[in-house]
């Protein structure tokens, strides 16, 4: 096992909405030292089927957790941390995750990636999550609420989904002190339409009072639509990029994203290693997208 690889045990795996699950995993204490936006590669312990691990953002990680009594091959003696992931069942790997019962173990590599950069001295932060982009945004909201409490930072979160059932973590976000605005494409909750429409209305009304960055995680079209909005309002923009990931740590070169280099020429970065969080002004949004997205029905 590499230093960042370990086995974790499923503590709970609960369906929270028609297609969504919350899974809690017990593992070593070091997993609690994560930055919002970082992710884990979750793999199956026999390592053969499915062959590839699946990337999942860390929703939360709490330490200490009472040590586990299980040992032996793949056991997790001394586990002291409980990590939560939220996931949407959308293919073979996530369907297998959904079928896992407490007591089963998974192979985990991580925390991986860079995570969001947090500015402490700002009075406002605007966060946008689309669909299953919410776990890192909820984790970031909680960290911002704690770290920026002394500055009274106002946190505005925008959640978008196809329908009400796609809006996760609303009560967690409100509990952390954020103002939450929601948009659904079918109009079943909040604004009927795209979350970026709601964002624009908000920024147009308040721009002069906002000094913090925009943070976003969600599908590529949403991230790309936010880029010109951020530019128009002259706001720094941290975008958590999507990619198909086979390894998660820079070995397979399967997750490249085209960016603008220093001399404004096109260059490439790896979403897993250099990201997943990028400065939205660097991304070549028009060229990004091909190769991004999932292979439906993939057997890997
Ligand atoms: C940084 C990051 C964080 C994420 N966080 C979350 C989260 O918190 N919750 C959530 O629900 N989802 C999250 N995802 C998406 C999640 O990883 C996918 O939904 C999941 O892998 C789907 O797996 P599946 O087996 O169900 O789908 P399938 O479509 O059956 O399989 C997808 C698998 O194939 C691999 N794959 C597909 N195409 C390629 C390719 N071209 N090259 C290499 N490998 C390929 C994928 O990496 C994945 O392992 C995240 C993705 C990333 C990149
Ligand atoms: S997922 Fe393998 S290099 Fe990024």
List the helices and strands and how they pair.
Layout: E1 5-17, E2 20-27, E3 39-44, E4 54-57, E5 60-62, E6 81-88, H1 92-98, E7 105-112, E8 124-130, H2 134-147, E9 154-161, H3 170-175, E10 179-184, E11 191-192, H4 195-206, E12 214-217, H5 220-232, E13 237-240, E14 256-260, E15 266-270, H6 271-274, E16 277-279, E17 288-291
Parallel strand pairs: 8-9, 8-12, 9-10, 10-11, 12-13
Antiparallel strand pairs: 1-2, 1-7, 2-6, 3-4, 3-7, 5-6, 13-16, 14-15
Descriptive overview:
The protein has 300 residues and is of the alpha/beta class. The chain folds into 2 domains: 5-112, Translation factors (Elongation Factor Tu (Ef-tu), domain 3); 124-291, Nucleotide-binding domain of ferredoxin-NADP reductase (FNR) module (Rossmann fold), CATH 3.40.50.80. The chain is 19% helix and 33% strand. It contains 6 helices and 17 strands. It has helices at residues 92-98, 134-147, 170-175, 195-206, 220-232, 271-274, and strands at 5-17, 20-27, 39-44, 54-57, 60-62, 81-88, 105-112, 124-130, 154-161, 179-184, 191-192, 214-217, 237-240, 256-260, 266-270, 277-279, 288-291. It has a 7-stranded antiparallel sheet with strand order 4-3-7-1-2-6-5. Strands 11-10-9-8-12-13-16 form a 7-stranded mixed sheet, with helices on both faces. The chain is globular, with a radius of gyration of 19 Å. The two termini are 21 Å apart. Residues 71-75 and 290-299 have low confidence and may be disordered. The site of FE2/S2 (inorganic) cluster has 12 residues, from loops.
